[in-house]
Amino acid sequence: MSKTTGKKLHWRSKVQDSFVPLLGTSELGIAIGGGADYGEFPFVTSAQGGGLTVGDIILEIGGTPVLGMTLGDVRGVLNSCPHPIRIKTVSPSTLCKDLRLYLSKCFTPGSVDSQLQQVIRENLLLRAIPTTRQPRDGEIPGVDYNFVSIEEFFSLEESGALLESGKFK
């Protein structure tokens, strides 16, 4: 007797395309949570119509990849899109919402997952990067980088607050 095993489909094959409904003159039918500042992918926390499901991981809003963005930045993208807002999501059962876990995995260079890691890292660079170096001329603390002391950096690293860490030169 032979045993057949079903191959698990990749998360990319389960991406859903939906539109966020407008409930009133300006109220959106969606609320979101997560974000890089919480170490998570952004996800739907409430949805009224539009085919979205609570818990779905948000990949794109209006064509903008939002993985690796802070919650505030994701909300900014959501609020700046023209209506109707197109949103791409995937079920949390197909993609883990923990950014640290996803970034720690090794994927084949050029694969969909490797490319997604790159998008996440690029979005993280917009806001969430602490550095122990001194600000350069024109750099604004909290905007360009979060400038911290070496002691503060090690404390963040030891507490698990950093998604990734490394040394430059």
From TrEMBL:
Keyword RNA-binding in record: no
Alphabetized PANTHER family for the sequence: MAGI FAMILY MEMBER, X-LINKED A-RELATED, MEMBRANE ASSOCIATED GUANYLATE KINASE-RELATED
Name listed for the protein in its UniProt record: Guanylate kinase-like domain-containing protein
Subcellular location: Membrane
Entry membrane topology: Peripheral membrane protein
Gene3D superfamilies for the chain: 2.30.42.10, Guanylate Kinase phosphate binding domain
Entry-linked InterPro entries: GK/Ca_channel_bsu, Guanylate_kin-like_dom, Guanylate_kinase_CS, P-loop_NTPase, PDZ, PDZ_sf
Domain PDZ: residue ranges: 24-93
